[in-house]
Amino acid sequence: MGDNRIAVVVADDDPAVREALADLIDSHPDLELVGLAINHEQAVRAAVDHRPQVVIMDVHMPRGDAPGSVRAIRDQVPEARVVALSAHGERETVLNMLAVGASGYLVKGTPAEEILEAIIRAARDQFSMSAELLADCAEPLRRAERASWRFEDLVGNRLEDSYLELLSHAPCGVLVVGPRGRIEYANAHIRHMFGYSSAELRDKRLRDLVPERYRTASEQLIGRVFTTPSAMSGRRRDGGEFPAQFSGGHLQGRQPRGVVFVADLSQLRAAESRFRQLIESSPDAMLIVDTSGRIQAANHRTEALFGYDRDHLIGRAVEALLPDQPLTVSLREWDDSLEEPVGHSMELVGRRSDAKQFPADVSISPLRTEEGLLTVLTIRDITEVQRAQFVLERSLELLEVTDRDRQALLSHLVHAQEAERGRIAADIHDDTIQVITAASLRLQQLRRRLRDPDEQRVMDKLDETLKLSLSRLRQLIFDLRPSSLEHGCLAGALRGLLEQMRTETGVTYRLEDRLTAHPPAETMALIYRTAQEALVNVRKHAHAKTVHVQLLGLDDGCLVRIVDDGEGYNPLEVESRPGHLGLSLIQERAQIAGGWCRIESEPGSGTTVEFWVPLGTPPGAPLATPDSPDSPEGDPQP
């Protein structure tokens, strides 16, 4: 080039927009149009051939993708700068372009003067972006900064109070002893145990609560990180003594303080009596067995189930009732374990006194006593349960066969609906938005030639009308096909919905994304549409002020919970009315993916919508029921 004008390449697949941009650049004395392109491949080739200073490029064009084109241009023509121009203004799209090196991002409908200014700024290696886009991209950073400040303030001021609150709910007596050995805190168990009030215990020493013969031992408990329990006696306010167990520890906080735990052993006798009553009143057969497998005790239900008198069972091997099974080995393993044993269940075969056998569910639980480790066996005859389970399994198989065709049809309808949404969004972007953008650029060129103020005001109003049309069309594109879903960001797509609702209705929101797995594209679209339907109900009917949306990973699936503080309703009345299809659609969409849905609401108490879909099962799979092992938390099906 023989002059100092800025060389520009224009890349846009819509002819009207491309020609309007070309005319706009030609009209500026400091700019020179050196090339045109109609797709990403031509954009890169034009940049290499003409080596412009600026490439103004539509993000959505055929034959490639925008981030790849920016990388290629920056690699092959390092001096070139790229300004993105698109009908999409979502955060994910903008950040993806900036991450690969774009020098600016403008939304179609931006005034011509701003487009020209962005080209000139890019040539100076300066950045350009509309204010609303910049604010939207910076919002996550501001939220993170505010959340971090609140967390640090909470931890710094509340940690010690949290320890004391936790100790107040301990199931035993708790004393907190200060650096000078004086009692600073005593929970309700201690006050009841020793007969003192809080004021009377304050500033006493631990040795004041034990007989004189235990004072030295009590002082040794204070200040240690951990001590094993010591059997001593406590002394009450009235001078009476009671057997007790003391152990010491250390309490974290601003000052070093000791903590002492006290258990009243006199209560063990009452506990043993309650334990015997519990075993005897159990509806199931219960046995207490020692580590050698010998029966030590049995309740009356054991007599009825096995047909033996309990006196006949005492001292006999448990194999007499549960023969030829690996039960004794499991009991003996507990005796040598250094860790606290954990109970479990087994399905075994029981044998009655008449030699008849039956399937049995046996729960095995450890029981530590002063005499050693014992085992409690709870035995239930599950003959009828297995018979009912067999009938239920056959019924479920028939139900699945019947349901499969319906789910396949619903799945097809959802896929067809998403495809139609995508086609309509593409038509709006490739045709309507492009034509209106071109008209807006032509209108702004015409306005600069007008000198009459009244005519300029008319043109300004017409320009505002075109901008409003573009804004609404971009929102319609987002509703039909959120770009966040195309980038695999479910939370981003939902945040766009919530932001739109907040802007238009004033309903504030909180979005929690605790989903670590990445859903397949089809499942992600189904989750989004289901949540969208629920949020439409909130917007139209709830009259809510706030809504809370959670994405949770649960049982190899995604649990979505949407809670509003609106007016609520009676589900039985509303769901039966004609025209209320939204709730049915929410449930059917969840079932398509092999999941479930639950809706809870009461007048005046807001509404909770929960639905769960598996992330590894394609749409059309059999419906999971909350009673099955794969259902989250065993929740009942609504």
From TrEMBL:
Annotated positions of the 4-aspartylphosphate modification: D58
Chain ranges of the Response regulatory domain: 7-123
Region (Disordered): 614-638
An example Gene Ontology CC term for this record: membrane
Domain PAC: from-to ranges: 344-394
Annotated GO MF terms: phosphorelay sensor kinase activity; protein dimerization activity
Alphabetically ordered keywords of this record: Kinase, Phosphoprotein, Transferase, Two-component regulatory system
NCBIfam families linked to this entry: sensory_box
Name the record gives this protein: PAS domain S-box-containing protein
Source organism per UniProt: Streptomyces iranensis
